[in-house]
Amino acid sequence: MTPPDTTGQTRAALGAFLRAHREQMDPKAFGITDLRRRRTPGLRREEVAQIAGLSATWYSWIEQGREVSLSAAALARLAGALGLTPAERAYVFDLAGRHDPEPPPEEAAPPPALARLVRDLPHPAYLVDRHWNALAWNVSAAALFRGWLDQPGDRNLLRFIFLSPHAPRLIPHFDDRAGRVLAELRADYSRRFADPALAALIAELAAGSPLFARLWNSQAVLGREGGRRAFSDPAGAEHHYDQLTLVPLPDAGARLVVLMPAD
């Protein structure tokens, strides 16, 4: 069966969203004081277009749900003109099917309640941001991930896997597991082409790890997924876990990983 074409619905949803936010804007905030002849609240279409540096006709067509070409740069200017929050901005780019050229700022720290949840979990658990930096972890995770979470220093999971000598000793069947991690990274990268920090990290790893460079060129793609995981203790014995990956902070790209001892 051919899937239904929803492009008209998404264009209509985008137009309705932009119109609602335009009508909520205060003209006085933009130096417009003569409001006597206004029949609708908020700014006029041509005023928003002017603030965003866009064609008034082009902007009107967007609100009307008509088929127009939407560049990422134009959407970024429009989002700035409307003063959209990060979540609202992401919604606009999702509807338009475009990558945001200005990714939202990285979370400096997770919300206190989320960090406390991670610390209190009975099994190894850690929270990573969109660049795979550890934001929070518990004692069990620090004990398991020797060389990554158990000592001061860089807490980037990708650097640990591909640049640290501890990783191959911790992770059985290392090359295979590293390949799956890198395929998950490529899936992340497809959504963040414009993220300079992620691009710099990939370049650093490709230069520093022949394994990373070879696997990256293989073009494999995987979604972030759970499943059975194995880790070796200092004596060489393997311990098996079932991995559960959750997304508690979608806008920040953060992921919570919990490792439950396998039955």
UniProtKB/TrEMBL annotation:
Q: Which SMART domains match?
A: HTH_XRE
Q: Name one Pfam family in it.
A: HTH_31
InterPro entries (alphabetical): Cro/C1-type_HTH, Lambda_DNA-bd_dom_sf, MLTR_LBD
Domain HTH cro/C1-type span(s) in chain numbering: 32-89
Q: Where is the signal peptide?
A: none
Question: What are the transmembrane regions?
Answer: none
Q: Which PANTHER family match?
A: BLL4672 PROTEIN (PTHR35010:SF2), BLL4672 PROTEIN-RELATED (PTHR35010)
Q: What is this protein called?
A: Transcriptional regulator with XRE-family HTH domain
Query: Source species, please?
Result: Xanthobacter agilis
